[in-house]
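User: I'm new to structure prediction. If I give you an amino acid sequence, what do you actually give back? Let's try with this one:
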Amino acid sequence: MASYKENRTAQIRLVSSHNEVYEPCDDSFALVDALLANRSNLLEHCPTMCMEIGCGSGYVITSLALILGRERGGVNYIATDINPNAVKVTRETLDAHGVDAELILTDIASGLENRLAGLVDVMVVNPPYVPTPEDEVGAEGIISSWAGGENGRRVIDRVLPVADHLLSEKGWLYMVTLTANNPSEICLQMKKKGYASTIIIQRSTEEESLHIIKFWRDSDTTVDEVTDQSLIGFLGSLLSQIPLFSLWRGSNSNDNC
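Assistant: Good question. You get back a string of structure tokens that encode the predicted 3D arrangement of the chain. For your 257 residues, that looks like this:
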């Protein structure tokens, strides 16, 4: 039995795999690191509904449940994926760690708009963010897990309004982005919808520079017009908030937002 890297909450094991399912990699690890860094805040947040869009192997939704604690009652977990093999692998990962979640085979959150409107307190998304030809977006098989179209934004730009619709008044969104996705523009787009944001983790690998961004509702952030100068200032403000986290294999992370 293969093992994923061990975090400080639990050892998430690779109990099942499929050649058409994306296995945890640097982006998955960075997202879970961000949740670990925010653990104290997540516990104080007392979410009752947590959701992952695009669950893949189940690594992130399982980690989130273990971070919040299996003994903590009253938390419902739901995860979606367009890939039926991913739903199967996620179920096996959840079961192996004593965690339960409702798994739904769907595109992003199609069919859940009415049921979950304004109910999701924590949403986690590792979207297909890699810049690719447009015709690869939504293709069958594992390619759909990374193909993001032009600038890697095709799926991200579909997820954002869905998140806005499903998040509760106290809802938090954690999203993986790539430098090529223009994360500052994503933040400004969400700012216009009334969301504040901060970069929880920025991590560079041999192939990419990842940003894990947290969004939350804040009416004071609403803007009517964004100029080039404000874009520069906003990006600078975001970058100044990046905490210096080590890889989870190393020393303990801070719990500050």
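You can read the tokens as a compact description of the fold. Here is one thing that stands out. The two ends are 36 Å apart (CA to CA).
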